[in-house]
Design goal:
- The complex is a heterodimer.
- By secondary structure, chain A is α+β, with helices and mostly antiparallel strands.
- Chain A is built from four helices and six strands, in the order αβαββαβββα.
- The longest helix of chain B has 38 residues.
- The radius of gyration of chain B is 21 Å and the shape is globular.
- Chain B is an all-alpha fold.
- Chain B has one domain.
- Chains A and B meet through α1 of A and α2 of B.
């Protein structure tokens, strides 16, 4: 009998405690703006160095850092990286990538190529999202003629509209 | 006012009452449809705030147009059913689920003089209709030809049978004092004697818990327990029929809160007998409507608060809670109330 009333009493106390917690959370959101969620298109989370899009790095003279050790190509699971090897124009003993191409249609953003790179030639640029509207543009030539090539560019509004119109025609 | 308008149109009494009924039900339907739309929006907002989120805030200013978008989406949705349903019953079920709680609003006094009909047996009428709404759920589960639906419907029946009992017994304790079954006279009694919640807090708590269970609201939402029964009795429903179940659920919620307000919290009366306007004037009616709406809103918020705080009960816990906790306490409460009322009234 004593246990019966004790159970009811403890249960009621626990329920009230739970209700006070939810009410506190609610007023935290309403009054102090303590929402834990990120309002995605307006705000984005900071990305760490392992997440993002692959980008090439260049030295002070503007030449690619890549020494064509092929580490990234061997590490790449879908095999989306291609490069052509050449000699460095200022130091003929050093090898350098003339072109360095990454196909984002195949890339799975696994970061293995960056981990395999010995020369800081590529890194993960903390870009949150970058839509491609055309498959032919997904093959990005990041190094052209040993120097900076095509980059991930922001598309202009007109370009996006044209592409969406083209896609609508397909469906 | 509507009564006079109806009398001016025709001299036949039955045509008068037909016109009166048509106007009143259209008014209640319109107002309750608006209320349900804003309630769904508020439910989403409150749930978001209690989970430390912001909730819908994309459509319109502060997400206010979300409720219209929700409605349009539900109406435009394709009505997909499988070919083994019992067609007539399947279509009948959502109508019952909406009509039963909707008809019960006929005798709820919203303010002094704002009441469709003042039944002498108003409380019995209301409880007969709330008990009837489970028939809609049962038919839906049976006609869907789906195990999950049937299980949900059977749970609803078991739950309804169990929770009607403490609800009515808790109410009996109050009726010992008010000695009337008319909802309007219940409020008038509270005008002279003070709100019933002050004399019968235990009855109030039991009544409100049982009313929450009657609406199949969380934590008693075993009927449509998503993690166990897909969606319970409305698994096979889509589009406008599902929207009608949704509508009926929220109308039942509003009805339960209105009843609690009328029986325990003084209906249209302002707290502490505060009365700035002359009784019978139009301002007094508006003032009463405002207080009624405020109290119902408070209780509706409490129901949402329950839903987003408590985890769902298991079916045996549900039954144990009703038969071993609510019913004994309400019995003892009834005994005490009866003795006190006998002592006071001699």
């Amino acid at each position: 009998m004593e246990k019966y009333f004790k159970d009811i009493f403890n249960g009621a106390i626990a329920l009230l405690q739970g209700m006070s917690i939810t009410l506190k959370t609610m007023f935290g959101v309403l009054a102090k703006d303590e929402a834990t969620t990120v309002q995605y298109p307006e705000e984005t989370l900071d990305l760490d160095h392992t997440f993002g899009y692959v980008q090439a790095q260049f030295d002070d003279d503007g030449y690619s850092n890549c020494t064509t050790c092929m580490g990234c190509i061997r590490a790449c699971p879908p095999g989306c990286i291609t490069l052509t090897r050449g000699k460095h124009p200022e130091n003929p003993k050093q090898k350098i990538a003339i072109t360095y191409t990454l196909d984002y249609a195949k890339c799975e953003f696994c970061n293995l190529c960056v981990e395999a790179c010995n020369d800081d030639a590529i890194f993960m640029a903390p870009i949150h999202e970058f839509p491609f509207f055309d498959r032919s543009k997904m093959n990005v030539e990041m190094v052209t003629d040993m120097k900076k090539g095509n980059d991930l560019k922001e598309l202009s509004d007109q370009e996006i509209k044209d592409m969406e119109a083209k896609m609508k025609r397909l469906f | 006012m509507i009564q006079k308008f109806a009398e001016s149109l025709s001299t036949q009494p039955y045509i008068q009452s037909l016109i009166y009924g048509a106007i009143c039900s259209t008014l209640i339907l319109g107002v309750s449809a608006l209320c349900v739309m804003s309630l769904i929006f508020l439910e989403r907002k409150v749930s978001a705030w209690m989970q430390s989120r912001l909730g819908p805030n994309r459509v319109g200013p502060r997400g206010l147009l979300q409720m219209i978008a929700d409605g349009i989406k539900l109406i435009r949705k394709e009505d997909i059913v499988h070919d083994q349903i019992m067609k007539f019953l399947f279509n009948l079920a959502p109508c019952i689920a909406v009509a039963a709680p909707f008809a019960a609003f006929a005798t709820v006094p919203f303010a002094d003089g704002v009441q469709v009909v003042d039944f002498q047996l108003g409380i019995i009428y209301v409880f007969a209709l709330t008990g009837f709404s489970v028939v809609g759920i049962l038919i839906a589960g049976y006609a869907s030809v789906n195990r999950y639906s049937l299980l949900g419907a059977l749970r609803a029946t078991a739950q309804m049978i169990s929770y009607e009992i403490p609800m009515i017994i808790a109410l009996l304790g109050v009726l010992c004092f008010t000695e009337t079954l008319s909802l309007r006279e219940t409020v008038l009694y509270q005008q002279t004697h003070g709100w019933n919640i002050l004399y019968a807090p235990v009855s109030f708590i039991i009544f409100f818990i049982a009313a929450t269970a009657e609406c199949n609201r969380a934590p008693f939402d075993l009927v449509e327990a998503e993690s166990e029964l897909v969606a319970g009795f409305h698994t096979e429903y889509a589009g406008i029929k599902f929207a009608m179940f949704f509508f009926g659920e929220y109308i039942a919620m509003m009805l339960a809160c209105s009843l609690t307000v009328v029986i325990f919290m003084g209906g249209w009366l302002a707290p502490f007998g505060f009365l700035p306007f002359e009784v019978g004037s139009i301002l007094y009616t508006v003032w009463g409507l405002g207080w009624f709406a405020a109290k119902v809103a408070l209780l509706l918020f409490t129901m949402m608060w329950f839903r987003w705080t408590f985890p769902r009960l298991r079916i045996d816990q549900l039954m144990v809670f009703c038969w071993k906790v609510l019913i004994p306490i309400s019995m003892v409460n009834l005994l005490i109330m009866a003795v006190i009322s006998a002592l006071i009234k001699g």
